[in-house]
Every structure is written in structure tokens, then in C-alpha cells.
Amino acid sequence: CAETVFYMTWGRENGDQQNCANWPPVCTYEGMDDLLRERYMMMAEMNEGIVSPVGAVWRFLRENHPDIQLFASDGSHPSPEGSYVAALSFYTAFFRKSPLNTSYNYTISDSIADILRNSAHEVVFNQLSDWYIGSWDPIASGAIELGPDASPLLINSSMNATDFFYAMDGGEFAALTTDSLTLEVAEPGEHTIRIIAAKCDVADTVSIAFDIVLSTPVITAHETIGIYPNPANECVSISIPDSFIQPQLSIYHSTGITMLPKTPLNNNQHIVDCAAWPAGVYLVSIQSSNAFVQRRLVIE
């Protein structure tokens, strides 16, 4: 359950003069700092780690508060102010809490410490996802489809997790050990499934609401709905077979939030404007008087 954290360092105050002749990009602070940032971000992504972006906070301070000296006299190692910035960055990366929480100033004046805390808050805490902080956390996600015998089939599409659990209609959770599970539903009407996706001490939960009409027939492969494009980013086209009688369309975010309430469809194709929707996994649900189907939609 250990997590790798990459310590993004900073460019030297006047660049790497020893290697400048052989590698011009490192001749300046900006050039060296750009390369360091790029490499640390690459390593974090390749290793599914997170970044403590100390160098990025230094860059912000150099551009917005150039009077604060972050370097020691050698132009490479940190001054007390630079070390304090590093501590703030690591605190925020480790605990995902704002560095404004601390009142400890080390050996730094109140006014300078406030600037350093606010800078770390802006660069790190306000942009956690930019540093992959939380990017590898479990994401609970699922969908309900019709199985071969017209029974509801729970599809587990959760990510970044090792353990999965499910509960139906407020019941107790049970282990979910397969990617799909046939649900036993005795009564028609609306039901709710909750999925927990967990890894170590981090977990995510999603609720999926669905309607069941016990007399619903099996939907054959050629009668399924079409979703294009998928993934989508601006709009998505949803096509409905002619065999669906009085179909209604609804779309839910993987967190359970209704993005499009039940909407009667008057033709075989419906265009949904999703440009303002946040990126994530969604559930497209079609309920008609003779069929029920749900499909996964990804918004980028």
C-alpha cells in the first residue's frame, strides 16, 4: 500500500553552467526548470505515482515574488525559505490538505511565510490533479444491462481498485468478485445498487438507480442502442431501434447524479449536448414499455 511520491526539484538559480556548453537547454534557470518538470511528470505517470511539485512553487514565487530568496549562496541548494516551500509542498501532496492549515513559520517572518503558504496553496492544493494527486485512487463505476434471460446484469467497470463490494436497495454489502453479476429482483419498479471500489485504505462509492419491468423481453444484439462518439466531449448521438415502444432516455453520472432526467424520445435518434458536463463515466439508460437497456458513456 505504499505510494511513490516524486520530489520535483528546481532549476539552478542561473542554470547549469557546467553542462551549458554541451546541452544549451540547461543554460538558464527557466530551461533547466522546464526539463526537470517534464521529466518528473513523465516518471510519475509511468510509475503511477504522484508529484510534490516543489520546483513549480519555486517558479511561481520567482515570477510573482522575485524579492524572496529561495536559493542558498551556491545558487543550487535551498535557503530557509526554499526549504520551507518544500515542506509545504510535501505536506499538501501527502495529506491533500491546504498548507494554509499550518501556523508554524520555521525561521521565517510572518509576512514572508504567509506568501509562501499562499503560493503553495495556489500551485499545489488548488491543482492537485495536475500533479496526479488522486489520479490513481479507486473509482467506483458500474452499469445495469439485461442478461440472456432478461434478468438485470450488474457490470462492474470500477478502476484502480483491488476489492469490490455491492449492495442492493439498502441491504448489506457483499463481495463482488466478478466483472458481471446477475441480480435477483423480485419486484418491479425502481431499484438502487451501490458499488464500493477499494484499494488499501482508499475507497470510492457509486449508486446506480434503475427501473425493472419484470415482463421486459430480451433485447437481441441487433436491437441494441447506438452511442456515437464514445468517448465524447461536445455532443453525443443516441440511436434507438424501431422495436422500442415509447422509449424514454435518461443519463446518470457515475456518482449517481442525474444529468438528463427521463426524456420521451419522438424519433430514432437523439442528440445530447454534453459540452458542459465534467469528464467522467456516465450511464445511458433507455426505458420503454417493451425493453430496458443501459450502456456506458465516457465524457472526456
Question: What topology emerges from the helices and strands here?
Answer:
Elements: E1 5-7, H1 29-46, E2 50-52, H2 54-64, H3 80-95, H4 110-123, E3 142-146, E4 152-156, E5 163-168, E6 174-175, E7 180-182, E8 189-199, E9 202-212, E10 226-228, E11 235-239, E12 248-253, E13 258-264, E14 269-273, E15 280-287, E16 292-299
Parallel strand pairs: 1-2
Antiparallel strand pairs: 3-4, 4-7, 5-6, 5-8, 8-9, 10-11, 11-14, 12-13, 12-15, 15-16
Helix pairs in contact: 2-3, 2-4, 3-4
Protein traits:
about 300 residues; alpha+beta; 4-stranded antiparallel sheet; 4 helices; 16 strands; about 20% helix; elongated
How is this structure best described in words?
The chain is an alpha+beta fold. Helix content is 20%, strand content 30%. The protein contains four helices and 16 strands. The protein has helices at residues 29-46, 54-64, 80-95, 110-123, and strands at 5-7, 50-52, 142-146, 152-156, 163-168, 174-175, 180-182, 189-199, 202-212, 226-228, 235-239, 248-253, 258-264, 269-273, 280-287, 292-299. A four-stranded antiparallel sheet has the order 6-5-8-9, with no helix packed on it. It has a four-stranded antiparallel sheet with strand order 13-12-15-16, with no helix packed on it. A hairpin with a 5-residue loop joins strand 3 (142-146) and strand 4. The two termini are 29 Å apart. The model is unreliable at 214-223 (pLDDT under 50).
Lateral strand order in the biggest sheet: 6-5-8-9
What gross morphology would you assign?
elongated
**Alpha-beta content class:** alpha+beta
Tally of separate helices: 4
Poorly predicted segments: 214-223
Strand coverage percent: 25-35%
The chain-level mean pLDDT equals 89
| Major β-sheet profile | 4 strands, antiparallel
In helices, the fraction of residues equals 10-25%
In total, how many beta strands?
16
Report the oligomer: single chain
What's the end-to-end separation, in Å? 29 Å
